[in-house]
Amino acid sequence: MRDERLKTLLKGGAIWGFILLELVFFEVAGRIWSLSGNAFVDLDNMLLLLKQAAPIGIIAVGMTVVMINGNIDLSVGATYALAGIVMLDSMSWPFMEALGAGAIPLAWGFALLTGALLGLINGLIVWKTGVDAFIVTLGAMLGFRGLVFMYNGEQPTYHLDWTMVDIAEAEILGLQTPALVFLAVVLGVWLLMTRTVHGRNAYAIGDNRDAAVNAGLRVGPHILINFVLIGVLAALSAVAFYSGSGSVNPNDGMLFELWAITAVVLGGTKLTGGRGSIIGTLGGVLAIQLLRMGLGHIGAQTETVNLVIGTILIAVLFLDRQLNRKGAEELKI
Amino acid sequence: MADTALKSTAMKSVGGLLARQGILVAFVVFMVGFALWNPRFIDIDNVFGVIRSSAILGVMALGVTFVVIGGNLDLSVGSMLSFSAIVVLDLHENPAFGPALAIPAMYAMTLALGALNGFLIGYLRLNSLIVTLGMLSAIHGLTLTYSGGQNMDIANQSETWFGVFGRGSALGIPVPVLIFAGLAALLGMILAKTPFGRKVYAVGGNGTAATFSGIPRARVVFATYLISAFCVATAGLIQASRTMGAQNTVGQGLELEVLAAVILGGASLLGGSGTIFKTVIGVLILGFIQNGLLLAGLEFYVQFVVTWIIIILAVWLDIATKRGKLWSPIA
Amino acid sequence: MTQHTPALRLEGIVKTFPGVRALDGVSFSVLPGEVHALMGENGAGKSTLMKVLGGIYQPDAGRIFIEERETVMRGPLEAKAEGVMFIHQELSLAEELSVAENVYLGELPRKRFGRVDWATLYARTDAILQKLKVRFDARTRVGELSIANQQMVEIARALTVNAKAVIFDEPTASLTDAEKVVLFDVIADLRAQGVGIVYISHRMEEIFRITDRISILRDGAYRGTLETAATDEDEITRMMIGRSLDLSRNAAAPDLGPVALRAEGLSCGHLFEDATFEVREGEVLGFYGLVGAGRTEIAETLFGLRTPTAGRILLKGDEISLGSPVEAIARGISLVPESRKEQGLVLGMNCRDNITLPQVDDLTAGPFVSDGAEISIYDQYRDRLAIKSPSWRTPVGNLSGGNQQKIVIGKWLSMRPEVLIVDEPTRGIDVGSKSEIHNLLRELAKQGYAVIVISSEMPEVLHVSDRIVAMYHGRIMREFTAAEVTEDGLIQAISGLTGDAA
């Protein structure tokens, strides 16, 4: 049993150990190779890190919930783009223009509503048809992207509203809005998953769905809620990002689902559901973003980032399996 | 009473046909409908045009069919395609290689990536979704590193025979169509008729039972990834040859479209079921839908929405027939 | 009359599935404070009946009464609300969650804003755990518990509500004797509180120890109810299977050939240690012991699925090392595994392909598998083993358990093995097929095969074996010949009560 605890600790702590390693490595390597001689571990850098991590990070938090629940969502990238388009486009609707600055919260609301609606569609299909979430959201990834293109063709959608930009770039304690939103989402969903009945049921359903059904849990609506949640979070991510940038390209958000899943898996969430943590995902997101920044800092080509992250993902999977091996007694199947 | 019995038998056989070949029936209905609406749709040039433009996706889907029937996923085929296209173009321009050596060298390198997938998933038994997700990212990085982020182009396009794979035609049939058809026939036979094919089904259907029956599971899974890589290399060759140039991201997103075609053909993600023939139908459906919608004057992206609806309907129908209930019993 | 108001009464329950009448008018009642056994062969309809009672299936006809009030069970929640609780045979726990969260699964106590009321949750759970006299607390992660303790968590779940009826489905399958005592105490407590208990089990000794009445199902039909005190095993068996099962002792003196397979000091970690035994051609060697005693692990080692940590394996006198099943099969060792559906068959594959799977490489014409060669092998073993299947194209998953098992046996016989290991040859199959398979195993020995049979059913081991090896906790405790073996001796050996290893 002590052994078990040790393993849990190792697994939970591994990602933070890795982050520490990254910090030390890039700091030292930066001093050796970098011409500028700037420190890597410095407050501004770290604040920037949080901001840059926010778009994928917010989505990854939602992905954690869905994956703990035993599902997956491949359509988040397209949801992100569509919510962004709706938000920016709605700002130029006649009645919205008449509202002036009052239109901003409404535009945000439309974006979030879009995300909720797309999540609802996925959730309803998964619940009612019984088709695996992987397939449902794989289809939706294509379908939602089609909707993105249908909205405005291949043209980018833009609307720059300076009030909105000001809000997006506002700072509290040096943290810009996207970073704050990200941290708030982490905190909120962490509370949801650890403290509430809904969160605990999410674990139970992901762990043993039959048991949950037998215990009388309404698994269908529960799964539906989580798909709505990830839809809303994907939209929130778009709100946080596009409020500042003011322009959505129809190809935006592609591969976001894969980055989010990578972060979630690095953070220790079990693929088959039932185990995982929001804090672990935070670690996964930060580790990836640190790697991006760090490789830039030491002057490595940015191209290397993908190579390194892919390798690390596989290495983590390998180590996790080695940790779970039973040694000589194992059945060779 | 005999009459009703007859009727019910007839209905059963229709239902059975729909259940077994539903996707084929849907395909035929779709083709006939569109042909009636616009005869240009089944014009031989149009048909070849569609198959030619589906060939890259199709060839990749053939390989992925093996992987999926073997009970795994391959999400790395998109970035692997970019890799092989970039590599073959670069080596083509490299005086030390030239087209004749560039092609086998590119095949060797792509197969090495497939072997890595196969080793990690087959022999080390790591989860295929995550491994190939990692490989998607890693191969993309590899391609960018290799190309330095630059696009690759063939400088003297008129002086090379390299274009034959993507642009040529023989006996009036475009070469990509011939490659797709030939590879489909070959792989279809391997899967349906050889002992190896049988083992792929067994490993995907029940890997534990396959092991208990003395089937070298790891080796079989390894081989499915080699086949997948071989198909990707071939698709990369067609791609590079057709455009005589490629971007680093030419295959981006293709992995999921390929998977969509395979699933549409009726292969189960759980493994153990599916055929090459059905995958070809799945690929053609996607191709002809795109074409039909374009002929109808709709933008190319409308096909995404249509594909979404079709995939879900197809899989739902499949599940519903198996469980004998339209709606999921989950409360 | 009030005193005899049944806690639970079923009346004329009918449930049909496409092609099967799973329940055909089942009626019985459970009184408060009664332990009522429900018995029947596998496939007799017990689990279907329980699913109807739990609201997972809706009956086609018939009525359910709780304390004489007619009730419609629409789902597990209704069943729970009516006070009908289930202790499932297959544990239905979420291993990553705490004991408390599992006990109150679906009903976590809430505070405002949907928060979990942890204090109440732990307090209530600990109170229940105390009653069960277990040595873990409400905060323990279920995955860390032994199977027996996980069972206790299931039982704790049943105690969360004011249960009127509790259904135990094979609760002792994975319990040690000491743990059984605790379980029986719990049942006695429940009974004293006036709860009606349905106890599903195959184990006669338990049935006679704790139940008051016994209701019997056969082929989905209700066959009657007996007073436990006024009946015996024989009567129950006859009602269950319609006739007596021939499980007479194996008495035939075997015509033994040379030693086919010998293990010397074979060990695999702590799974089993220092196992020495041999099996001769023409002999059936039985392995008997409790689940987890290491029998299956020995079989898996002989089949190349586990690497021994010590000892040697000799095949016809030559030492061999087996790196994988491929090597074992090449040397003529075959294993009919314990779990037919998980290890024995590819359920979605047809009958023919399952039988020829291990030798598909050799059945070729040119590069392709030869249809003719395959079909002729299938036909041969279909006839020899009397496999009942509509056609070779039928997916194995559609066959009955007995026919499925014959397909697995056919698969290995067609390889003409030197040594055939059969793990739990008749688990989950009907009585008719059972005796066919018993006869087949004897027949194979007569033909000169060396056969190893692993079984948890004593009558089966006694019936088919020429010699019996008794295992306890990974060690071989004793070896018996058919002539010297006694039931008492076997039970003592597999409970670790006899001293010396063989």
Automatic annotation (TrEMBL), chain A:
Keywords, sorted A to Z: Cell membrane, Membrane, Transmembrane, Transmembrane helix
GO cellular component, one term: plasma membrane
Coiled coil: none
Keyword Coiled coil carried by entry: no
Membrane topology, as annotated: Multi-pass membrane protein
Record's keyword annotation contains Lyase: no
InterPro entries: ABC_transp_permease (IPR001851)
Compartments where located: Cell membrane
Gene Ontology terms, MF aspect: transmembrane transporter activity
Pfam families (alphabetical): BPD_transp_2 (PF02653)
Transmembrane segments: 12-33, 53-70, 77-96, 102-121, 133-152, 172-193, 223-242, 304-323
Protein name: ABC transporter permease
Taxonomic lineage from the root: Bacteria, Pseudomonadati, Pseudomonadota, Alphaproteobacteria, Rhodobacterales
From TrEMBL, chain B:
Protein name stated in the entry: ABC transporter permease
Transmembrane intervals: 17-37, 49-69, 104-123, 129-149, 170-192, 220-238, 258-288, 300-319
InterPro entries linked to this entry: ABC_transp_permease
GO cellular component, one term: plasma membrane
Cell membrane as UniProt keyword: yes
Alphabetical list of CDD domains matching this protein: TM_PBP1_transp_AraH_like (cd06579)
Keywords: Cell inner membrane, Cell membrane, Membrane, Transmembrane, Transmembrane helix, Transport
Location within or outside the cell: Cell membrane
One MF term in the entry's GO annotations: transmembrane transporter activity
Source taxon at top rank: Bacteria
Membrane topology listed for this record: Multi-pass membrane protein
Pfam families linked to this entry: BPD_transp_2
Major localisation: membrane
Originating organism: Rhodosalinus sediminis
TrEMBL record, chain C:
PROSITE patterns on file: ABC_TRANSPORTER_1, ABC_TRANSPORTER_2
Localization (cell): Cell membrane
One Gene Ontology cellular component: plasma membrane
Topology term for the membrane: Peripheral membrane protein
Superkingdom as given in the UniProt entry: Bacteria
Pfam families: ABC_tran
Keyword Transport: yes
ABC transporter domain boundaries: 8-244, 242-498
Gene Ontology MF terms: ATP binding; ATP hydrolysis activity
InterPro entries according to UniProt: AAA+_ATPase, ABC_carbohydrate_import_ATPase, ABC_transporter-like_ATP-bd, ABC_transporter-like_CS, P-loop_NTPase
Stored Gene3D superfamilies: P-loop containing nucleotide triphosphate hydrolases
Main location: membrane
Keyword annotations from UniProtKB, A to Z: ATP-binding, Cell membrane, Membrane, Nucleotide-binding, Repeat, Sugar transport, Translocase, Transport
Coiled coil residues, start to end: none
PANTHER family named among the record's database cross-references: CARBOHYDRATE TRANSPORT ATP-BINDING PROTEIN MG119-RELATED, D-ALLOSE IMPORT ATP-BINDING PROTEIN ALSA-RELATED
Protein name according to UniProt: Sugar ABC transporter ATP-binding protein
Protein's organism: Rhodosalinus sediminis
